[in-house]
Design goal:
alpha/beta, 10 strands, Rossmann fold, 228 residues, three-stranded mixed beta sheet
Length: 228
Amino acid sequence: MDNLIVNMIDVGYTGTIDPNWLYSDFRHSVHKLISFNPIYDNDKPLHQHHDHYKMAISDISSSKTQFNIYNKTRQSSLFAANPVEIPSAILQSTILVESRRLDSFNIDDFNFLKVDAQGSDLSVIKSLSTHIQHIFGIQVEVFFKQLYLGAPTLEEIHKHLCSHDFYFFKDVHKLDPRFGDYVYINHNAPQNYQNLIKEVYKYANQKNKKSQEEVRALYSKEKLEKSM
C-alpha cells in the first residue's frame, strides 16, 4: 500500500492534517492537499502541493455568506450555536465570507474528504455533487446533541452517505461526548484503498476509549449498520 496516492480535501483546516493521518505510516501517501477555512490564513503550506483557500464551503455558492465568530474560534460556524448545549459560546462578531461549492474546483483526482465544519458538514458533502463517486473515504464531524441551531442531524448525514454507496467504518471518539468524527468508506473504492483507510484509522480511539455510552447509545454502530 506504500505506493498508493491520496489527494485530500480538508474543509475546516487549521494548520495540519488529521492526527490519524499525520502520525500513521501512510502520512507520505498524502500527495496533494486542498484546504478551506474562512477565518484561517495559511502562510505555511504543508508541502508544495498544498493549496489553501480562505473561504467557506457550502452547497450554495455566494460572495456574501454570514459567518458567526465565537470567543472560541473553533466554534465559529455558518450556524448559530445552541446556547443550551454550548453555553460557553459567546458571539463576538458576524462577518460576511465567500462560500463556494467543492465541485467548482478542479478536484477530479482528489479521493479523500475530511470535513470539520461546525454543523455545515452535510452541506459540504452535498457540494461534491457527482464528484462524490471519486471519493474513496470521508471523515466527517458528527453531533450527538444539537450543538448548532438548524444544523443537519447525524441521521441525515448517514442516510445521505449510504445513498451514495458509502458504509460506516469507525467512530473516532473525541474527548467531548457531544460530538465525534465518523469515518465512511466508499463501497466502490478499490480494495487496496479501502484497506489503506482502515489501516490509517486502525488505532484511533486508543487514548479515548471511554466514549460515554449513554450519550451515544441512540447512534450506536450496530444501529447504523442495520440501517444500511
